[in-house]
Structures are given as structure tokens and as C-alpha cells.
Amino acid sequence: MDPLTDGFAELTLETRDPALLERFYVEALGLRVLSREDDRVWLAAGPRARLGLWMPGEKEFGDEGGRHVHFAFSAAPGRLDEVKSRLEARGAQVRGPEEHDGGDRSLYVEDPEGNVVELWDFFERGRPVEELGS
Questions:
Q1: CA 87 to chain CA mean position, Å
Q2: pTM of the model
Q3: Residue 100 DSSP one-character state
Q4: pLDDT higher than 80, residue 85
């Protein structure tokens, strides 16, 4: 069966201080601001995805923020060590790189709101998503 989706379009995080979270994702991870609205900021998270930083409260489609379990950015090929240095230069406590079976590596860091963010070089060598398993 052909998949009906081809990746994430957006992920949103709840924050009481969108400017603080924006600075972290722009300065530490190099995301680009797409727009700022009264209660949210949108950041480009790759060529076809965006990260929303939303103030608490109900939104136009009944959406409401909350805590997430886990999310990961795909690290640009060959740049995981640079990402670690950049995060540490900004005072972030970074765990890793942790090496996984198969040789790919991940960094783990908390953003200013306490969300655990993974940066993973899994796709660096062109490995297919099917290798992730369940």
C-alpha cells in the first residue's frame, strides 16, 4: 500500500514565553522565523515542515497545547558535532552523541520550556525510514 502521507507538516509546543523559545530554536538550531502572530510563532523546520510555538489557550479549531512525549529533528548530514558545539556555547546541557545500533547518533537537549529535543543523524547516510521499525 502506498503511504497517504509523506512526513510531518507541523509540530506545536506550548510556551508562556514564545520569544524565549524562538531565540533558542533560531540561535541554537538555526531555524528560520516564518511568522509571528499574537499568540504564536511559526518556524521553518526543514523544507516542508514548521514548528509552532503557541501560548496556552484554545485556538481556532479547538486546538489546545499540552506536553509532548518526544520529538526529534533530523540533523543535517555531517553537522551533528557542530550542533552540539553550538548548543553548548549557549549554555545548554547536551547529552550525547549517543551511538545507536547501525552507527547513527543522537544528541538530547532540553529547550527553555523543558521539552526534550533529539537531534538525530539517522537519515545522513540515506537510510530508509523502514529501518526504524516499530
A1: 13
A2: 0.78
A3: P
A4: yes
